[in-house]
């Protein structure tokens, strides 16, 4: 699932909470600040969160 809703990502995540709880969605792509409420919700459903390190051109796993 790609979420691109111009600062309404949290509302989409909250609305799809049952889908995430049931892990019916394998991947979620969205742009958020590290430590956002959306990240916390996704991690509570066992999703791993990654950030893009543009300087090193690689993905970094965010552990919270």
Automatic annotation (TrEMBL):
SUPFAM superfamilies: S-adenosyl-L-methionine-dependent methyltransferases (SSF53335). GO terms for biological process: methylation. Keywords: Methyltransferase, Transferase. It holds the Pfam family Methyltransf_21. One of its GO terms (molecular function) is methyltransferase activity. This is FkbM family methyltransferase. Residues 1-36 form the Methyltransferase FkbM domain.
């Amino acid at each position: 699932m790609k979420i691109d809703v111009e600062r309404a990502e949290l509302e989409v995540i909250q609305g799809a909470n049952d889908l995430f709880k049931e892990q019916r969605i394998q991947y979620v792509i969205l742009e958020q600040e590290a430590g956002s409420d959306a990240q916390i919700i996704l991690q509570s459903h066992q999703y791993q969160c990654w950030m893009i390190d543009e300087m090193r051109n690689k993905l970094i796993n965010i552990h919270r």
